[in-house]
Amino acid sequence: MATNNGVSNGLIVSFGEMLIDFVPTVSGVSLAEAPGFLKAPGGAPANVAIAVARLGGKAAFVGKLGDDEFGHMLAEILKVNGVNGDGILYDQGARTALAFVTLRSDGEREFMFYRNPSADMLLTPDELNLELIRSAKVFHYGSISLIVEPCRSAHLRAMEVAKEAGALLSYDPNLRLPLWPSAEEAREQIMSIWDKAEVIKVSDVELEFLTGSDRIDDESALSLWHPNLKLLLVTLGEKGCRYYTKNFHGSVDAFTVKTVDTTGAGDAFVGALLCKLVDDCSILKDEARLREVLRFANACGAITTTKKGAIPALPTESEVLSLLHQA
């Protein structure tokens, strides 16, 4: 941490999609049975940006929205939450992406997407705010932006520019299989940029998908290791997380909370981690300090599951500290 009051100075730029999830007013029913839906703004990269800002960090979002009411609403949500919007673009011809989400009775989710194509898919390399991207200390992204052109080329260009400018590259594949033409294509494209990232976070489900193994153990995780990697994280839901660096590995337990909706928990975890790393990458070489940061990140993820929707549930630093003190 560069300052004593916990406020981060380095900019975290999050790249990718922002959309609206329509969530049934009743849990545990199919989309067809849902009596009504609530609008829940989301999209993993945008959630991460807001998670960072809510914890007192500096965040910016780069992506394309529809020039429609929903697109302007999403841009306003970023602004209200203190996220720099200089990287936001609007598409005149395409709509903001929508997703209908089923909340199963166990809090897990199923998705039905409306993107044919949506504005986020139409971002071109020429439209990128390169000045903003070059000012990033951390550049964070997912894999949904790799699915189709021209957004894929914009993603690759943004990564390259951020890396050249000295940013730490952070990758959360955030697998959404229904969006990919096939599972094979998803695996291939997610892995196509694997060796560029220095921090990678995968869920237990993504670990199984990417390795083709049903074992969630150290051997399976380390099969994803690459020489440029500084930190590999596997999140295990209510079982906490595992961490792997060049010199050490281990696990950190989760916090027990009453889970209502798991949406955004992984994004809160990533935002918290990046917030702590952005001004002090030496944490990656110090196991005791890394464990402390991951405990903080686990607390952020846990709090996010106690409320419906991602963005309203993302915690402030004081909420996290209060959970840490109770534990």
UniProtKB/TrEMBL annotation:
Cellular component GO terms, alphabetical: cytosol
Protein's UniProt keywords contain Transferase: yes
Superkingdom per UniProt: Eukaryota
Any single GO BP term: fructose metabolic process
UniProt enzyme class: transferase
Pathway assigned to this chain's UniProt record: Glycan biosynthesis; starch biosynthesis
UniProt keyword NADP, yes or no: no
Keywords: ATP-binding, Carbohydrate metabolism, Kinase, Nucleotide-binding, Transferase
Catalytic reactions on record: D-fructose + ATP = D-fructose 6-phosphate + ADP + H(+)
EC number: 2.7.1.4
Classification via InterPro entries: Carboh/pur_kinase_PfkB_CS, PfkB_Carbo_kinase, PfkB_dom, Ribo/fructo_kinase, Ribokinase-like
Domain (Carbohydrate kinase PfkB) ranges: 11-316
Recorded GO MF terms: ATP binding; fructokinase activity
Similarity annotation: Belongs to the carbohydrate kinase PfkB family.
Function: May play an important role in maintaining the flux of carbon towards starch formation.
Protein name according to UniProt: fructokinase
Originating species: Dillenia turbinata
